[in-house]
Each structure stands twice: as C-alpha cells, then as structure tokens.
Design brief:
Shape: globular
Number of strands: 28
Radius of gyration: 26 Å
Low-confidence stretches: 4-13, 168-178
Strand content: 15-25%
Largest sheet: 10 strands, mixed
Helix content: 25-40%
Oligomer: single chain
Number of helices: 18
Length: about 675
C-alpha cells in the first residue's frame, strides 16, 4: 500500500472512531409526535445527535440547503441554478464561511465538527440514501448557510436593488417581502399566576430553505438545555426557551445594507476622494449540469472597498455593502443566548450584535420582560439620504462603525406589564411609556404599524389579567382587525349594488368579524380586499370578487374552509398542490387581515382551492414558573418523509388552531416516549 493510501486510510479510521465515540455519548428520545430530544454527555455529542435526527427527518432538505449555501446549485439543477451560484460566489460565501470556521474558538469548532460528523454518520449508516451531490459534509457548511439565508436571501433585498438592474439576480427575486411574525410577553402584573409568559409565533415559509424544524438539545457537559425551532442545516435550535428564559424573534427592517454609486475611470480604477482606488477583480467558475455533462462556466466579479458590483443604474455601477458579512460570529452569539438564564444574561450575550437583525422579545423566571430592536446598524452621516444609493466616491458616506446595543430602541419591564411586536415599529410596543422615536436616527427605524399589531395591542391591553388558559386561547385568536377598520367604509361605498350583491353585503354587515372555516363572510371580505386596486371603486372591487367566486365555485356562498386549505407536498419529487389530494380546512387568514392566527394561502394554477405556503409555523406559549409550562404546534409534522406517521400528524391540530403538549423535562419525555436510541443503534 502506498504512503498516501496509508495516510488516507488512517484518517478515515480516525474520523470513524471519532464518530463512534460521539454516537456512544448521545441518546435521542423521540416523543409521541416524533420531536427529537437529544441528550448528550458533551455539547459536541449533542450536536452529533441533533444532526443525525435532522437527517433522519429530512436529509433531502438539509442537502438542498447546503447545496445552495455553498454555491453549487447549478451542478444539480443546471441553468436554473446558475444565477443563484453567481450571486453566492460574488458574495464570497464559501470563502468567508471557511475562514470563519478556521478562526472560531475551539469550543465552537467542536460543535460544528460534531454536527458535520452526525450528518456523515447518518450517511454511513444509511447506504440506501443517495445524496444528489454532497457525499461528505463539512463543518463550515452551517456558517455558509447562515450567510446564504440572511444575506443572500435576506439583506440583499433591503438594499434598494431593482429587479431589472440586478446583475446577479436569482430567479426568485420578485420583490420578496418578509412574511413577518408575532411576539408577545407579559410580566407578573398581567399574569394570574404572577409568572411571566411568552408567545412565540414566527410566520415563515412552509416549504423551501426557510422552513423550520423543532428540536430540543441537552448537554450534561455545560448544562445547555434549549428547545425551540431552527432551520434544516443549523446546528441547534435558536428561538425558544430553556428552564428559566425564552424569547421570540420577529423580523425588523433595521437598515444594514447600502448601495454605493462607484465612478470607474477604467475597468479597475474608481474615484475616491481626491484620488483613485483599485477594485479587486477575479474570475470564478461554476459547474453547470447540461444534457452533455458538466460544463465549466467562468464569470468575472468586480469588488470595491464597499463590496461587489451587483447592478448598474443610470450607467453607474452600484456596489453592495452589508453589515458584518465578512466578520461572522452569528452562531457563537446564538449559542451564548441559548445558554443565558435571565434577561440580564441574554443582553450580555447579545452585546456583540453579531446576530444581525430581528426584534427580540424575552421573558424570564424572575418575572422580567425585555425588548430589543436588535441589529448591527451602521453609523451614518445623517446629511445623506440613505434610502437610495449614495456617492461612493465621497468619503463622508463611509460607515463610521456600528451603533452599540445601548443605542438601539429597547424596553425593560414596562409599567403596563405587556409588550408586543408584529414587525411593527418599536415605538408602539405597549400602550404607554414606549421608546421615544425622537431620540434615534431617522435611518435606524423605518417600520410603521400593521393590523397584526393593532390586534395584538387590543388583546393585551383589554385583558386585565391573563390566566394560562387565556394565554393559550389568545395564541390562535381569529378576530379580523382589518374588518373593524375597513369594512364600514367598504359597505358604505358599496351602497346601491345590484340585487345579486345585496345579500352578500347584508351577510358582511351581520358578520362577527372572525375567521372561521364555516364563515362565508370571511371569504367575501378576504376576496374583496384582494380585488381592491387604487383605481377601482369599492363597488367595482366587490363585484369583481363575487364574479370570481361564482366563476370558480358556481356561487358566492363559499365557506372559508372550502378555499383556505393545508396540504403538504413532497419537495424531494417536486410535488405540486392538487385539489385531487386530501387537504384540511384552515381557520387562519392572511396577515393583512390582522388575525393572530396568520396563514397565507395562494392560488394554484388549475385548482379552485388555495393552499398554504407560509404563516404560523412553530407556534408556542410558555410560562416561566418554578417549572416551565409550555404548549406548541408545528404546521405539518416533524418528518419530511411521506411514509412517516409524523409527516402530517400535527396538521389537524394546527388547522383548527389548537396546541399539542410540548414536553421538556426528561421525566415528561420518557412518560410520552415513542422510541429511545443512540445514533446508528436502533
């Protein structure tokens, strides 16, 4: 045997031994809903087990997320993946992820090593699973997926680029809007038990890279014990709670990206101040699957000190700069947050502001509640208009560091006893004593209000004291706040409608303004809203809505549950929604209606029904007493395998707006156990 083969063989044996060692130090407990509770002797062993559990539940989705994150989508999808990969490489995501992993503290590298080994062990234990591309997983993949998920699929859209000029655009660039989330907390003065309570209600995609996965990690080594949700390919849950602290995160619009107009005097030199700077220019190559095999396709990227050139406007190149793209640190901050035991410790963990955005609203067992308008917000010269491109040749447009955590809008233990944020302004958290907008730069906060915020403030302000049952019921409230605001005007403007519409208008006038599967009025109101256009009078919009219902259903008397449906599709075979397959009626309604139970269903070509694609995903209520009390539900189920009993088992509860038990202590878990095993040993 050659020396090289001996070295490779020794490395493989060493890696397999390390995997076996980790596998023997972790136990996976699956409860009766299939939720994985991963208990390890060390943090690394726990990560090994959590990766293994994720792969058991949806290996296809993990591989898909990483294929996109490392810029190799075109190798699987051909031409469809080219633009995704170009954008990924222009942002240098693979390089930055490798470098971040290399400079991480040993503790964090051990976590990522454990996670990668867990995925590789799953493949070794399941030779029947055939990866489409990635036959071995690397520990730098999760940092790459974080950059892909939050920069490439997130911040890049908030910088002001237009679709037509977006040189590195991916096919899904379509004016993406963040779907939003709801988050509430109450303190002891609003709680019948005197305990703080938390409501976690992220509104995220049901399919694709953004879908969530529920899990629980517990490490004997450090006392790490956290349950909640994550994304497939992230190494641990990052929103949820431990024994004494929990939080919800809702997207904010903190401005963390800017466009800089660059003036090039040749292909490399560009103006800056009284002189010139040289752009970095390089050629990268992506591999593209074709009918004739794999084709190598080179492309060139230019990058100024502001960032890569992503577009041209009025003949001038636009460089894109995004906060902390190169520095990283997101995973380490999440890890420290999940190990915090109080609001004070949570704020300390978030001090670096490396988790770059999102309203964070927390509650702890000490009865404290805290809100932070979290974000790595650049300090900018206020004389410039930062809502559009700024002059990159003017040194005054340079960022001057980042605002410190104490310079961001936040609130601790409000006198009202409650706070909410539904992707709304931090200046309307509660009914009085809110942060003062005048004390913050105008560029820092751009959000206004929405109907979900209106509903949340009404519920929280109007309830003098919440019992646990009150809190649970409020989590799936179906009052349509938009109807309170819009319907009187709409009905007034529709006076004089023809006989065919009069009965429908009368039904809307009698409506209790709640979303319900049996409600015809909910269908009428929602379709009326969707038919409205600035140039279209209310009467005409209503006639259009009725005509659409009659065209599709033969009548306008269509119950909401007939249209508003939940169906799970198998992404691994590119399955499409179909009226011919079973589906469930869903109580919830689109966020524009203002219902707490937020559910976005979209029309499907060739089908009469509309199917859910986003909305409430992992919905949970938590009380921080002497022992934590909690309920939760996932939109579909824990497994992505259509043959699994947990593929769609939570869906009937979710569709009705009901929670399931959510066990946290080992005693509770074992009392509601489906199976217990070590990875690779059933």
């Amino acid at each position: 045997m050659s020396s090289l083969l001996i070295i490779i063989s020794s490395l493989c044996i060493t890696q397999l031994a390390a995997q076996d060692n980790l596998a023997s130090r972790v136990t996976i407990y699956r409860d009766t809903y299939g939720i994985p509770h991963v208990f390890g002797e060390t943090d690394a062993a726990t990560m090994f087990g959590f990766a293994y559990a994720q792969a058991e539940d949806n290996f296809w989705r993990i591989e898909e997320n990483f294929i996109r994150a490392i810029g190799r989508r075109a190798e699987v999808y051909g031409e469809r993946g080219v633009l995704n990969d170009k954008r990924n490489r222009a942002l240098e995501i693979p390089r930055l992820a490798r470098e971040e992993y290399a400079r991480m503290p040993a503790k964090m590298r051990a976590l990522l090593d454990g996670f990668a080994r867990g995925l590789n062990a799953y493949l070794a234990d399941h030779p029947d699973v055939r990866p489409r591309l990635l036959t071995r997983f690397e520990p730098w993949y999760p940092p790459a997926f974080i950059r892909f998920n939050y920069y490439q699929n997130g911040f890049i859209y908030g910088a002001g680029l237009r679709q037509a000029e977006f040189e590195m655009a991916a096919e899904d660039f379509a004016g993406r809007e963040d779907l939003g989330s709801n988050g509430w907390v109450i303190g002891p003065s609003k709680s019948a038990t005197g305990n703080a309570m938390l409501f976690i209600n992220p509104h995220l995609p049901f399919f694709g890279t953004g879908q969530v996965y529920e899990g629980h990690v517990n490490s004997k080594e450090s006392g790490w014990n956290f349950t909640g949700y994550t994304r497939f390919g992230f190494p641990f849950p990052y929103v949820g709670h431990n024994e004494s602290l929990g939080w919800v995160s809702t997207d904010n619009a903190a401005d963390q990206a800017d466009l800089f107009t660059e003036v090039f005097v040749d292909s490399v030199r560009y103006r800056y101040g009284n002189g010139y700077r040289r752009a970095v220019v390089w050629t990268d190559t992506i591999l593209v699957k074709t009918d004739n095999g794999v084709e190598r396709r080179p492309f060139t990227v230019r990058k100024t000190h502001h960032g890569p050139i992503f577009a041209t406007r009025d003949g001038k190149p636009l460089a894109l700069r995004m906060a902390k793209l190169e520095s990283g640190g997101w995973l380490e901050e999440w890890y420290n947050m999940t190990r915090a035991r109080s609001v004070t410790e949570l704020k300390r963990a978030m001090q670096p502001l490396n988790m770059l955005f999102g309203n964070v609203m927390a509650a702890d067992a000490g009865g404290n509640t805290w809100y932070l308008y979290n974000g790595a917000v650049p300090i900018r010269d206020p004389q410039f208009d930062w809502s559009g491109p700024v002059d990159g040749s003017d040194p005054r447009t340079e960022w001057k560091g980042f605002h410190r955590i104490d310079e961001l809008p936040q609130m601790l233990n409000p006198a009202t006893g409650w706070m909410q944020n539904c992707n709304t302004t931090p200046f309307l958290l509660t009914s009085s004593g809110n942060p003062d907008s005048a004390t913050f730069p105008r560029y820092m906060v751009t959000e206004g209000d929405n109907f979900r915020g209106v509903t949340s403030r009404r519920i929280l302000a109007a309830t003098p004291m919440f019992s646990w049952d009150d809190w649970v019921r409020a989590g799936f409230d179906t009052h349509v706040a938009a109807a309170d605001s819009l319907l009187p005007r709409m009905l007034s403007n529709a006076v004089g409608a023809g006989d065919s519409a009069r009965a429908a208008l009368e039904m809307l006038g009698r409506w209790d303004r709640r979303s319900d599967t049996a409600s015809i009025a909910m269908t009428l109101f929602d379709r009326w809203q969707q038919a409205q256009r600035p140039e279209l009078p209310d009467r005409a919009a209503f006639d259009s809505a009725l005509a659409g219902l009659v065209r599709d259903w033969g009548t306008w008397r269509v119950p909401w549950g007939e249209i508003n449906r939940l169906q799970r599709i198998d992404e691994s075979i590119d399955q499409q929604f179909s009226d011919e397959r079973p589906s469930l009626p869903v109580v919830g309604a689109g966020g524009w209606n203002g219902t707490v139970f937020t559910y976005y269903a979209q029309p499907v070509r060739g089908q009469k029904r509309r199917y859910g694609v986003a909305g409430g995903t992992y919905v949970s209520v938590v009380e921080f007493g002497p022992t934590v009390r909690r309920l939760a539900v996932h939109t579909m189920g824990a497994s992505g395998d259509p043959k699994s009993p947990h593929y769609f088992d939570q869906a009937p509860l979710y569709a009705r707006g009901q929670f399931r038990p959510a066990w946290f202590t080992l005693e509770e878990i074992k009392a509601n156990l489906e199976r217990e095993y070590r990875p690779g040993h059933r």
